[in-house]
Amino acid sequence: MIENILPNGVASAELLAYPDDLKPHPAEEHLIAKSVDKRRRDFIGARYCARQALEQLGEPAVAIGKGERGMPLFPRGIVGSLTHCDGYRAAALAHKLRFRSVGIDAEPHGALPEGVLDSVSLPQEREWLGAASTGLHLDRLLFCAKEATYKAWFPLTLRWLGFEDAHISFTVDELSDDAGSGTFHSALLIPGQTTDGGVPLTSFDGRWVIGDGLILTAIVHG
């Protein structure tokens, strides 16, 4: 599914069924040596996908380290993002000469836990959710888009971005009771100076899709 919301030039891989014999890269084992089984499987699965994407880009399938706030450390000249949720792991990578950052997120297609929406949304966003008439869990879609926004933001700024720091609006391509797709726009509400001295960030544009029990969002910022 993830490739359907990514532009040309972005390599991706996803893993639904988890192979019993899947092992971490030897240089990554120390990062999860004390982790519980679920954390290990998510970490190993997402980085397995990342190495598949690296090979698609013509790059060596090397270890993927972990940086500040858990940010994956891709090889020099590569930008990308990892995601995982129950039954799903994925990666999307690209050459930095072509794209500035990538942010993806996956969530189960279900309602947010009670009380969470108010802490992750702005009043304007809740107004849109209240007016939307659909059987889809758009509250979870909003959360998923906020997560992708943060993942696109952090590698460029190395600064926190709270849920209240981005206003997200959506457009819809198609909609049914159990599936849908469209675009979203993340307007950034705090200064977007970047560590690379490039043009400050003011917004991101992305795509979303819902199907097969999953919500996927992707931002590829050029």
TrEMBL record:
Key word Nucleotide-binding present: no
Key words, A-Z: Transferase
MF terms in GO: holo-[acyl-carrier-protein] synthase activity
Top-level lineage group: Bacteria
Keyword Transferase recorded: yes
Domain named 4'-phosphopantetheinyl transferase: residues: 101-171
4'-phosphopantetheinyl transferase N-terminal domain boundaries: 27-94
EC number: 2.7.8.7
PANTHER family tied to this protein: ENTEROBACTIN SYNTHASE COMPONENT D
NCBIfam families named in the record: 4PPT_Npt
Protein name, per record: 4'-phosphopantetheinyl transferase Npt
UniProt source species: Nocardia aurea
Organism lineage: Bacteria, Bacillati, Actinomycetota, Actinomycetes, Mycobacteriales
Gene: npt
